[in-house]
UniProtKB/TrEMBL annotation:
<dbReference type="GO" id="GO:0015074">
    <property type="term" value="P:DNA integration"/>
</dbReference>
<dbReference type="InterPro" id="IPR009057">
    <property type="entry name" value="Homeodomain-like_sf"/>
</dbReference>
<dbReference type="GO" id="GO:0003676">
    <property type="term" value="F:nucleic acid binding"/>
</dbReference>
<dbReference type="Pfam" id="PF13518">
    <property type="entry name" value="HTH_28"/>
</dbReference>
<dbReference type="InterPro" id="IPR001584">
    <property type="entry name" value="Integrase_cat-core"/>
</dbReference>
<dbReference type="InterPro" id="IPR055247">
    <property type="entry name" value="InsJ-like_HTH"/>
</dbReference>
<dbReference type="InterPro" id="IPR012337">
    <property type="entry name" value="RNaseH-like_sf"/>
</dbReference>
<feature type="domain" description="Integrase catalytic">
    <location>
        <begin position="129"/>
        <end position="308"/>
    </location>
</feature>
<dbReference type="InterPro" id="IPR036397">
    <property type="entry name" value="RNaseH_sf"/>
</dbReference>
<dbReference type="Pfam" id="PF13683">
    <property type="entry name" value="rve_3"/>
</dbReference>
<protein>
    <recommendedName>
        <fullName>Integrase catalytic domain-containing protein</fullName>
    </recommendedName>
</protein>
Amino acid sequence: MKIMPKSTKEEKFRWIKPILDKEISIKDMAKVCPFSERSLKYWLAAFKEYGIEGLENKSRRPKTNPRETPIRIKERIVELRKEKNECALKIQWDLEDKGIGIHFQTIQKIIRREGLTRKYRTRKIKYNYVRIPLKRGELIEIDVKWVPDRIKGQRCYQFTAIDCGSRWRYLQAYNDASNLSAIRFLKELIAIADFEIKAIKTDNGSCFTNRYTGYSKSSDPLNPRLHPFDILCQELDAPHYLIDPGKPQQNSFVERSHRTDQQKFYDQLIFKSFEELKYKLRLWNMYYNDTKHCGLNGLTPNQALGLF
């Protein structure tokens, strides 16, 4: 009973063994063998020099490439990926600032080869939204994010305002998420922003509106009692828009920035006091406004403000 070869090297050895035993010549074997005479000679030479291991299939990939990315640039790409956890496009912009030209798809291959990408990634459905370019101050999204860890047993909150046109942000930390904190934050935003705020959009939190908490309790349902935040917006002549309940996607800019805050700020720092939180949050706000954004085609929020 004939035993089938279990590997390619056993298959090659089966064809050259009669030649080694001088039972048949190479030319005659080439007539009945599915391989060429040149292959048989190559296998014989490899077997005589390296033995059975010389018949193992070898990669045809070239050992050198004149257009290969230099090793120092590869190391720098890996360093930037581990240090900042940025996408390939942002790494390309960082390298361009240092005079290194490399395509972002090449960077993607390098970080994928180094195992620095997510192993399990769900494919999302992409929709072609029609986005109207906004000018600075045309729409400001405001939201509240609670600080993940308590500081000395007390819960702290981060108020965030982002300009939808330039992605410029203003952050401030408070001990509570009350109406007073929301009003104080809006007044600080107006004082620090060097542009006019024309409209504001928030969620339906109780610190921004009493749409779901106070309207039903009003003595006159047709003229409900306005929230202090709404009254301040009216004094500023800035419309106050509310998103639909349970639809945080409609506050997409500020919600996406909160994810960046969680990954690159709160997950990496520990705060011992409320004053330390406010100080580091201010530094992080300055760093964010000087960071290049894919949505701005490589510009920083401060640079985008200058274009408008």
